[in-house]
């Protein structure tokens, strides 16, 4: 094995002669290992020839030398043997032309220096090959061996850089260098504020930055990059600055605490990596940070010994206006325009264009500022307008909702009269804001907000009832809104008389000549008969048209001839085109929670009707979420709460998900003038001990047809019995007929006939299940009485489907005490009771509401059931509801109740009761009871 120095850049190549290679291929395992290492070394060198390189080459050389068959240059020389490691030394030699060349050799000198890993030397004369010691590794040694000559004019600079930048190499220098170490010198912070223009064309902008340096004696060093030692050069002297890293970090932490972070790479200088900028965010926050830093932090830094220099390129300027001015000007009927400006040094500027891009970035004013923080708006260039939070907060809070519209040609906001009411809070702005507005809008706002500002109205002469004090206040409120052309939601608890207050409102308008157009009432089908009954009873002067049934289209052209027109939510979308052909004095939605989904056909149709006033009657203006409230007021006063998305962003999401009390209060204040709600507890002192109400219910077409079928069959049967046996001996037949009619009124499923199975309607049950969720939501405790245990079972199933907790007491109840306690303890707000099991002997003063599903028309029996709640120990008013189907035997017997109590009692006794029933019917009574539906 022969090694030859082929002079390739100081590298070494090993070559075997052919005969030797042939011997190795079949030689011992040691030779095979050497061959494998040589192949790996050659592969790393990327050469087809055998070369020594890297770690594989270094290991192969050691194995070759130990084999005793490795020769230097020629096999005629003695075989190489391991020797002792020799250190590598370097020194500079000056050439005849004055240049300096770096000479690198072992000590003692050798014939060759092999740049392997580890480096090795070969001394052919002594026949020795071993390690060349160089602490910085093979790559560093190779660089030294190939270092070019240093021209004489560069010798001093190279000497200083070697000394300062690679002191660990411990190399000699071409010329003599003096080294000075600066230690234990405190750093003096020097902060420079500067600006840079970045981008091109329309995207060009100026960014503002800060650069931190530290002074060590007379030497300055940048804060970044952080180096333990920084060198500076002066003539033939190198000054090595040992930096105080702890104090430098404290200075950087100080800047970070006021918002500075390292600027991105594209803003850094080529020779400086330490530029800082105010913590990125929106521009307004960055401007606020700069302003606070300049005003509050910089003076403190200077007092602490910092040097702060403002470069001419730093152009930030902050101005504070002398005054802000809000102007609201009427531009036509029911329209206004809003302008917002400010003055600086007597010059007027428009504030709206500056506010718009900033407001569009946020959902809430709190995201921009708080009442104790300033708002910053870019004016031009690097100039910023500084507005105090106390001054601008109420303006931003209101205008935040109004920027979802284009500006007028003058740059002002155009608002409808309803939207103008949203500006009510701006009048409370501080003294720094000048408030100028349309006098009519201001007067309306003042009236809406002022306690006792609504004048009292005399009750109408034609009202056949005496209004309770709270009902009088409701009339005053409805009249005030009507006079102002505004709508509202009358949201009193169920049973407090929303209908009678509305009728009184319409009667006042009629008696004073304002009701020259019809008022359209939209109600659930089950309440149409109730409206007709209450108009007949309390406001007979109001003419009524009911648009219901298959022939209703025949009356469309007579709408204008009536004071009140009644229709249903189900029919409203079908008849919308015909109804839109009229202009109404008022459109009134009863049970207005029906339009809680704004996208339903009935909600869309109701909004399409033109009226002077829109009213909503509901005990539950919001059942599940605030979106339902928005839908209601989108009908009543479109624009008051903004569009649906704006309302969700500004109110619904912050309130429902974030519990934002300030947004909640703002919403309450905005709705307060247009939402009148009184609970029965609030007006308890104005109520009698017991309030009785008859709730009439209209049968649907299928149930009405079923009732008529039963009535015709029963009438024929009764007439035949009377003809054969006489009236006195036909009582059982008469009672059976009336019982079946009564069951058909309650629910067709109670009638034991095959045809009852096909009737899918139960108007009373639907009416009851419309009432109960609202009552339970109001916190009422309710007793529901029925004579029929089967009917209570049907109600029970409906309550389960509605997920309303209940208790039940019938003759089949085994754990009577447990059922009673479940209601008394509050576990169940509804108590279903059969008259037979609970009509007497119970004390349930926890209840405040009694519902007679199928009233026992004998007043004494009915009173006994009601007295389960209305008795000694009751400390709250009791509401009593009687559900009566319109135009049926129930309504007719109700009319006979006072004068024929005994007859009514007999009618509703079961034929299998123990005592003998001898009712005294007359022929007229029979004709009345069995007359057709209607």
Core attributes:
DEAD/DEAH box helicase, 38 strands, alpha/beta, 22% strand, helicase, 30 helices, 6-stranded mixed beta sheet, 7-stranded parallel beta sheet, helicase activity
CATH fold description of the largest domain: Rossmann fold
**Strand content range:** 15-25%
- Count of extended strands: 38
- CATH superfamily of the largest domain, by name, is P-loop containing nucleotide triphosphate hydrolases
Outline the low-pLDDT stretches: 5-26, 900-919
CATH architecture of the largest domain: 3-Layer(aba) Sandwich
Mean pLDDT across the residues is 81
Instruction: Give the termini separation.
Output: 127 Å
By CATH reckoning, the class of the largest domain would read: Alpha Beta
Please indicate the count of domains.
5
Percent in helix: 25-40%
Strand order within the widest sheet? 28-29-27-30-31-26-32
Describe the largest sheet.
7 strands, parallel
* Spatial extent as radius of gyration: 50 Å
Supply the number of helical segments.
30
């Amino acid at each position: 094995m022969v090694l030859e120095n082929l002079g390739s850049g100081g590298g070494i190549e090993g070559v075997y002669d052919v005969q030797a290679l042939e011997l190795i291929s079949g030689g011992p395992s040691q030779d095979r290992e050497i061959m494998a290492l040589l192949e790996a070394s050659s592969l790393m060198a990327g050469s087809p020839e055998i070369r020594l390189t890297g770690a594989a080459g270094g290991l192969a050389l050691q194995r070759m030398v130990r084999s005793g068959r490795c020769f230097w240059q020629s096999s005629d020389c003695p075989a190489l043997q391991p020797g002792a490691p020799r250190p590598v030394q370097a020194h500079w030699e000056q050439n005849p032309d004055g240049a300096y060349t770096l000479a690198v050799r072992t000590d003692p000198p050798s014939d060759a220096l092999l740049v392997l890993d580890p480096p090795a030397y070969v001394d052919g004369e002594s026949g020795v090959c071993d390690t060349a010691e160089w602490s910085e590794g093979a790559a560093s040694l190779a660089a030294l061996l190939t270092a070019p000559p240093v021209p004489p004019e560069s010798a001093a600079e190279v000497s200083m850089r070697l000394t300062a930048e690679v002191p660990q190499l411990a190399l000699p220098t071409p010329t003599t260098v003096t080294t000075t170490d600066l230690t234990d010198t405190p750093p003096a912070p020097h902060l420079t504020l500067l600006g840079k223009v970045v981008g091109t064309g329309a995207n060009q902008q100026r960014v503002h930055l800060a650069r931190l340096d530290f002074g060590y004696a007379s030497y300055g060093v940048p804060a970044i990059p952080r180096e333990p030692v920084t060198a500076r050069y002066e003539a033939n002297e190198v000054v090595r600055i040992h930096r105080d890293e702890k104090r430098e970090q404290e200075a950087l932490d100080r800047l970070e605490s006021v918002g500075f972070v390292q600027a991105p790479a594209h803003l850094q200088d080529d020779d400086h990596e330490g530029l800082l900028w105010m913590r990125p965010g929106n521009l307004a926050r960055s401007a606020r940070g700069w302003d606070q830093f300049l005003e509050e932090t910089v003076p403190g830094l200077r007092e602490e010994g910092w040097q702060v220099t403002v470069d001419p390129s730093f152009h930030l300027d902050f101005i504070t206006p002398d005054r802000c001015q809000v102007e609201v000007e009427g531009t036509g009927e029911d329209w206004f325009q809003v302008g917002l400006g400010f003055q600086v040094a007597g010059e007027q500027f428009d504030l709206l264009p500056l506010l718009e891009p900033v407001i569009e970035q946020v959902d809430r004013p709190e995201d921009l500022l708080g009442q104790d923080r300033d708002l910053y708006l870019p004016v031009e260039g690097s100039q910023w307008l500084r507005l105090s939070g106390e001054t601008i907060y109420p303006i931003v809070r209101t205008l935040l909702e109004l920027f979802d519209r284009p500006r007028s040609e003058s740059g002002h906001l155009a608002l409808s009269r309803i939207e103008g009411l949203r500006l009510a809070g701006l009048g409370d702005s501080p003294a720094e804001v000048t408030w100028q507005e349309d006098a009519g809008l201001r007067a309306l706002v003042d009236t809406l907000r002022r306690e006792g500002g609504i004048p009292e109205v005399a009750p109408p002469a034609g009202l056949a009832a005496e209004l309770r004090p709270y009902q009088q206040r409701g009339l005053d409120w409805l009249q005030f809104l009507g006079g102002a052309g505004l709508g509202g939601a009358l949201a009193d608890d169920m049973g407090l008389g929303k209908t009678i207050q509305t009728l009184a409102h319409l009667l006042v308008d009629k008696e004073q000549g304002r009701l020259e157009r019809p008022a359209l009432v939209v109600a659930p089908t089950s309440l149409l008969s109730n409206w007709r009954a209450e108009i007949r009873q309390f406001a007979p002067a109001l003419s009524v048209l009911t648009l219901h049934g298959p022939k209703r289209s025949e009356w469309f052209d007579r709408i204008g001839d009536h004071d009140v027109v009644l229709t249903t939510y189900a029919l409203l979308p079908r008849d919308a085109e015909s109804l839109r052909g009229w202009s109404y004095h008022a459109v009134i939605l009863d049970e207005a929670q029906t339009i809680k989904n704004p996208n339903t056909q009935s909600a869309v149709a109701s909004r399409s009707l033109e009226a002077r006033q829109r009213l909503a009657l509901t005990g539950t203006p919001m059942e599940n979420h605030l979106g339902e409230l928005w839908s209601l007021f989108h009908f009543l006063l479109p624009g008051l709460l903004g569009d649906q998305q704006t309302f969700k962003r500004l109110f619904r999401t912050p309130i429902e998900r974030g519990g934002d009390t300030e947004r909640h209060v703002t919403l309450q204040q905005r709705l307060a003038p247009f939402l009148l709600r009184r609970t029965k507890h609030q007006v308890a002192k104005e109520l009698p001990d017991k309030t009785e109400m008859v709730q009439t219910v209209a049968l649907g077409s299928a149930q009405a047809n079923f009732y008529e079928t039963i009535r015709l069959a029963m009438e024929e049967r009764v007439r035949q019995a009377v003809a054969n046996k006489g009236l006195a001996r036909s009582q059982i037949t008469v009672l059976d007929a009336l019982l079946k009619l009564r069951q058909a009124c309650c629910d067709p499923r109670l009638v034991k006939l095959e045809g009852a199975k096909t009737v899918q309607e139960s108007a009373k049950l639907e009416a009851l299940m419309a009432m109960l969720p609202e009552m339970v939501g109001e916190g009422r405790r309710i007793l529901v009485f029925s004579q029929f245990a089967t009917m209570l079972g049907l109600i029970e199933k409906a309550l389960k489907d509605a997920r309303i907790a209940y208790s039940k007491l019938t003759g089949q109840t085994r754990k009577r005490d447990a059922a009673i306690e479940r209601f008394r303890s509050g576990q169940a707000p509804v108590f279903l009771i059969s008259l037979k099991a609970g009509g007497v002997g119970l004390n349930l003063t926890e209840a405040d509401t009694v519902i007679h599903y199928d009233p026992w028309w004998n007043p004494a029996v009915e009173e006994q059931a009601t007295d389960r709640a209305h008795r000694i120990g009751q400390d709250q008013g009791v509401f009593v509801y009687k559900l009566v189907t319109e135009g049926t035997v129930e309504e007719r017997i109700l009319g006979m109740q006072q004068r024929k109590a005994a007859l009514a009692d007999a009618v509703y006794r079961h034929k299998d009761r123990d005592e003998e029933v001898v009712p005294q019917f007359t022929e007229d009574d029979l004709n009345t009871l069995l007359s057709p539906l209607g």
